[in-house]
Specification:
mainly alpha
């Protein structure tokens, strides 16, 4: 960075915006959430539980997981009996 020409550095500084700590935290929080939501696909565990999405895909995912767990529980009961 220090080997960069002064003119280039000044152009980059013009793009920056000086904000207080509170505004910086709010801005960073929004950007972080946007990034995280972009990685979690609808119909996944992370989207349903962590981000509390209740779209049709995410609810279908949750229901299918519930049915799988119910089958596992039946199997366990059959093995025990």
């Amino acid at each position: 960075m220090w080997s960069t020409k002064l003119e280039v550095l000044q152009e980059e500084l013009k793009k920056c915006r000086l904000v207080c700590k509170t505004c910086h935290l709010v801005k960073s929080s929004k950007e972080s959430r946007r990034r995280m939501l972009g990685t979690a696909k609808h119909g996944s565990m992370q989207r349903y539980y962590k981000w509390k999405c209740r779209c049709e895909l995410c609810r279908t995912y949750k229901h299918s997981e519930y049915l799988k767990q119910k089958e596992r529980d039946k199997f366990k009961q059959a093995v025990i009996a």
